[in-house]
Give the backbone structure.
Amino acid sequence: MILVTGGAGFIGSNFVLDWLAQSDEPVLNLDALTYAGNLANLASLHGNSRHVFVHGDIGDRALVDQLLSTHQPRAILHFAAESHVDRSIHGPGAFMKTNVEGTFNLLEAARAYWGTLQGDAKANFRFHHVSTDEVYGSLKPKDPPFAETNPYEPNSPYSASKAASDHLVRAWHHTYGLPVLTTNCSNNYGPYHFPEKLIPLMIVNALAGKPLPVYGDGQQIRDWLYVKDHCSGIRAVLAGGRLGETYNIGGWNEMANIDIVKTVCALLDELRPDPAGPYARLITYVTDRPGHDRRYAIDARKIERELGWRPAETFATGIRKTVQWYLSNAEWVANVQSGAYKDWLAANYQAR
């Protein structure tokens, strides 16, 4: 069995679904079900005995200890995190609590559990920490992409909290010998993405005939990774990554935000035309957010060189699959757009 934290969130739920589709090994799924955690993501697993869901917090040491002792997982895959930059600007405390204190608590529980293992069980145990390229800071237009050796220069409360968690994981390996792996990914997109992030927000707003808010000049550049490719990269690192090492997982797809928005609009024009006219008419430039990093890009050659991994999707194929998924899952979208979600949109965008 493996333990997945945050397995009802966007990336975590995609990982759980992919894992159980490709493996007979059961998953113990621990999620606090905050606003972005959604059991509807896992509806297809209802009644599946290989999926054991526990509603709980990684900060609850007694619960984590009990789960480890009872289920004896061979690996912990740590996805649980607060992950939205804008939310971290409005309320950084939750990010420190989950991403820093929660990771510390999980590491200590893992260390205690690992200490009880013997023989092959101890030798084969892994703590896999899932992180982000945002810990590296921002790139200039001509800078080479982020490599695993880049210094950490986080620029938001979110990225600072993830950088802190990365350092904790590294320290627990070097000080205590805990067998850890860390992956730093670029911007994910795909099914089950909560519609506060760029791509799902654009899809949802466009279909509702609402403005498509683009920060600043829209020229912020990101490397885009289809979530199912991210999941396959994590599986590759878990299976063959060297202990204590970091692996960058990227999509080799650098694109400016405004080009992403226009691509989404063009796909919607094709797949769900609006009688009122092209969706690009809804693009609205709004005041940029504080400290907005200008460019991220991932150098994913290490994982390819050592583990033979490359993304299967291009941006063209991945974004088409994503838009089609949202068009086919209107009920899921409607169910996540709660009053709390509407309050958040008002708080973040109204004044812009």
Remarks:
- The first strand starts at residue 2 and ends at 5.
- The chain has a mean pLDDT of 93.
- The chain is about 45% helix and 15% strand.
